[in-house]
Amino acid sequence: MGDPALFTAAAVDLAASDHSLQMAAFKLSLAWAALAAAAAAPGPNMVAVASRGLASGLRPALAVAAGVAVGGFGWAILTAAGLAALFERYPAALQVLGLAGGGYLAWVGVSACGAALRGAAPTSGLSPEGSPAGGWWRDMGFGLLVTATNPKAALIYASLSTLVAGVTLSPAILLMFAAGCSAILFTVYGGYGVLFSRGRVRRLHARWSVAAEVAFGAVFAALGLGMIAQAVGRMGG
Questions:
Q1: Residue 156 contacts residue 79 (beta carbons within 8 Å)
Q2: Treating both helix axes as pointing N-terminal to C-terminal, what angle do 58-78 and 171-196 enclose, rounded to 10 degrees?
Q3: Which end of the chain is more exposed for a tag (fewer CB within 10 A), N or C?
Q4: Mean confidence (pLDDT) of the chain
Q5: Could you give the CA distance from residue 112 to residue 127 in angstroms, rounded to a whole number?
Q6: Tens digits of residue pLDDT in 163-195
Q7: Helix, strand, coil % (nearest 5) of the chain?
Q8: Would you place residue 17 in the very low, low, confident or very high pLDDT band (cuts 50, 70, 90)?
């Protein structure tokens, strides 16, 4: 017969381990649900995917969604690993990100508007043709850059990192958290890509292509200018 004390200690350790796993699963599920809700809301990522789906079809839209998903994976890793604390300690870094991201989106929007009015293909990532070096990787890079320079994305992932604090100390769980975030983003924005690349929707877009491209450009420019204004406002505050 074994020592009863050893069996008791083993049972306690097993119960504690099971409780920890349940807590980790609960926190991760809560964070993923919050991310899915945030991703479904309109914003730069959705506009980027929709514009590519309407102009070029499903494959380019899915490439943009994949870029957003890769960016989300990076944000999840970095913020959980300590970038959120860096932003909290040095808020100017978030302001710089807002200026850079806002400037990029504003440039994308103005370029798209100008090219649509001229009847030319812009090099901003919104065009059906893109540059000679276009294709899947260019569209994916566009999605990655849009989400990587979005300070709101930084704030969202910083909030999620506090929600899963403690459980992501394990490298395996941290990777699971980031991979789950990436999968959610690709599912949500890939769904938008499917929606906006449907034949009937694209035919309607083709009929009003110039007006649609100008509208998308104006939305991007407005989002960019809004991000710049927020960053400047934080500096003034």
A1: no
A2: 150
A3: N
A4: 77
A5: 7
A6: 787 776 678 888 889 999 999 999 999 999 999
A7: 85, 0, 15
A8: very low
User: Burial of 230 by CB count in 10 Å (0-12 exposed, 13-18 middle, 19+ buried)?
Assistant: middle
Which string of DSSP letters, residue by residue, matches 27-78? HHHHHHHHHHHHHHS-SHHHHHHHHHHHHH-HHHHHHHHHHHHHHHHHHHHH
Q: Could you tell me how many residues make up the chain?
A: 237
Round to whole Å and give the CA distance between 26 and 164: 9
- Cβ-contact 105, 220 below 8 angstroms: yes
Q: Are residues 38 and 160 in contact, defined by beta-carbon separation less than 8 angstroms?
A: no
Sign of CA dihedral 63, 67, 70, 72: negative
28-62 confidence digits (pLDDT tens): 888 899 999 989 888 889 889 998 888 888 999 99
End-to-end CA distance of the chain: 71
pTM value? 0.73
Tokens of 116: 């649509």
Average pLDDT over residues 110-135: 58
**What are the counts of helices (DSSP H) followed by strands (DSSP E) for the chain?**
10, 0
Locate 67 and state its tokens: 């870029």
Question: Is the separation of the CB atoms in 105 and 146 below 8 Å?
Answer: yes
Residue type, 46: M
Question: What is the Cα–Cα distance from 45 to 26, expressed in whole angstroms?
Answer: 27
